[in-house]
Amino acid sequence: MLLNNSAPDFSLFDTEKKKVTLSELKGKNVLLLFFPLAFTSTCTAELCSMRDNLAFYNSMNAQVLGISIDSLFVLAKFKEEQRINFPLLSDFNKEASKSFGCLYETFIHEMRGVSKRSAFVIGKEGIIRYEEILEKAGDLPNFEAINTVLKDLN
Fold this sequence. Notes:
- Helices cover 29% and strands 27% of the residues.
- It has five helices and nine strands.
């Protein structure tokens, strides 16, 4: 459990091939959404829901970041096709997923090292204020609870 501890720092490339470093986002709330694989039905539904509700997260001074082990090239195509309006980061080397404790040893079809669907809210000071790691890839995070935490942080 990472709750109420400092968030592990990472630097990952986004679909624009720019490096995003978590610690450089201090001063903003951050919503990290780890998801298993681009182009799958639940991941698409989750990220499109975030896309459609981004105004709320912006009003909460929250930077939304989607993270998966897909390459940045796959994520770029996914982002374009789904018109995702927030950064998607490639954790191809699985370092962020490991440090946040949200990596399947074995996923479907014997794929190893796929991110578990997870949500983390990190407060402006870099402390994790909400943590949810789902074992079933078909489940979605509790966005009502996430939104309550974000409101409380503002």
